[in-house]
User: What shape does this take?
Amino acid sequence: MSIIDFSEEQSMLLETANEFCRENSTISVVRAQIDKEESVDAELWSRIVELGWLGVSIPETYGGLGMGLAGAVPIVESMGKYLMGSPYTSCILTAEVILSCASEEQKTQWLPKIIEGSVATTALTEEDGNWRLEEISSRAEKDGKNLVLTGSKCFVMDGPMASLYVVSVIHEGKPRLVFVTGDQVTAGRLTRENVIDETRRSYRLELDGLVIPESQLLQGADFSRIEMAAMLMLVAEMSGGLSGVLHVIIDYLTTRKQFDKYIGSYQSLKHPTVQILLSQEACRSHLYHAATQITGNSADAIAAIRMAKAQGAEAFAFAGDRAVQFHGGFGFTYECDAQLFLRRALWCQYQFGDSAYHNELLAPLLLDEVV
Amino acid sequence: MSLTHAELKDFEQQADNWFAENKPKRPDFILPETFMEVGSDQQFHYLRDWQAKVYEAGYVGMAWPKEYGGGGKEQSLQDIATKVMAKHRVPFLPNTIGLNWAGPLILSMGTEEEKQKYIKGILSAEDIWCQGFSEPDHGSDLGSAQCRAVKDGDEYVINGSKIWTSLGSYAKYMILIARTSNEDSSKYAGLSFFLAPMDAEGVEPRPIKKLTGEYGFCQTFFNDARIPATSLMGKEGEGWKVAMATLMFERGATGGQAGGLAMMDLSINDIVELARRTKRNGRPAIEDNHVRSQLVELITESKNNSLMSARSKISALATDWPAAVDMSGKLRSSELKRRMCQFALSLQGANGSRFIGSDAIDGGMWQRSYLNAFSGTIGGGTSQIQHNIIGERVLGLPK
Assistant: This one.
């Protein structure tokens, strides 16, 4: 079914978030933050926390707003539009892991902390870059009442800021999840990774010899749910990013002149720009449709999210690519903002499965059942 | 005073029963898929009879005012009826220009007299309408129309020609754009809009053979054709404004259409189903990996379009470029249809090179559909012009 639900609350969040990010994440702020150690300024982060945004997806029982992941979508979309960096999506994703896999006691312990601004993050991917979250080689071996971890994790976002990590490991032959707390990650275990999107802070986490109590093994291991939540956050970012980069393109096309004409009057630039507009609208439709569907773990929801990721990633990468090209010589420079969006788009494409990967997984879902 | 959920459900059930019972038998000739493809008398009469029957049963024009022949009911009922028609895959209603463009236009801008005179015949298909906008030398560039209308007493004398007049040989009326003046400051200011009778002397529709080898369009010639001065819609010189209002109906940006199926809808499921029963190199096409990935992309794109319809009702999500979704309807759907039909040929192995006839898969309907699909990507402003329009009006890019 082609349903899109968009509540009054989501609508208000979208308006507030767009306004907040427009004011607080101007391009000069984004560029200044790139040179700093963390992905977000501490004062800005505490304002985001005060707005209650960390709790939108978390049920009211734990102090949240109970809107589910669909509540985070308008916020992440707005952040994406203005390239705002922060551990926000990592926190929302980790909260979702806790909600779907942790015990009641762990939920009561950690969810209120996340709402109050404690950074939580995930460590799911490894050196080989495999997108299948259950195909991992890090291990957790039982040793009395403890677990001893081995291996290493990559793309751990905002590592040094985190007070909680959810780490995927093989335990007794099965892929499982464990909590690792900030104080257990001793000095030297985190190394900064050089990644294509400079607004992000990505780390490698060394697990070898790290000992945690057995109680930090999560009871559930719903990797499908984690993948869906992670993809939804990325699609929201891409949808916003598409509209951000389209504004950059339009600004240049309506102010830059060549051969005595605004370059936007040339059809070779105008027509692909319209294609970008339509792909942006398509991405947004898929996004809010997926956000509507994600409450259930149905096959429809999985198809909706994979479709959204596959379509959005292609569209955003194309838009970023054309944005650079349309700026001509200036587009080749670091100073031109087009590169920020292109590099963001490439990050989004290759995290949690690229378009070709998702299209391949969509084929049996869409083609092999009787329609 | 909107209807309750239960009342809507009841109505849906009632419509469902009616269409199940009254769906016409498949004729022994190949049916056209849109009003632009009606090429023979038997096709035309079959479709006109069908529209008359649907109107008599009250399932078209339901939301149009009762005093002019409509049903005087809520739009939601018509939407349901239209959906039920699509579900039963009944033939489309052939008076497309009347139901979707001329009718809504007359209802929104016409005089009381015009409404009394035209609306009922549009709905019952007694009066077929055609469109006279494009000219041989001015396809998408309507503003440059050269067909002349000169006032002479209580008549206008029309000279020139119009092209792509679908149903031209069957139509009783034409919505016509003609030039009443060459002296105005802009080319647009000299245009006027007429509800022109096709039976006037000097009006001659000549069928044009299409790229498929079939008929379906006319070129309509006007040789000193005299039409009553009362057929002018609006004032002299307002033709451009009225034509733009009509095109907004055509491009799907404005509601008010009579409802009912305007064309046989090709769904992506039809293509998937085709891929299950056709073979490439001895194996079902649907098992071919290249075919599978292309199908997934087409399904995603067709999902885009159905989601866009849902989106267009949510104004809070129409933020940065609010007109984008509505203004791009024709471009998105016609391009997708063209590519789906084109792709359908690739599912047929060497049989992809057959044409209409019993040896071809499905009698050659896919080859025919593909060639006919250009009517959507060219008619009503080519896709290239649509890109210009969206770029300029929605994104604010310079001309």
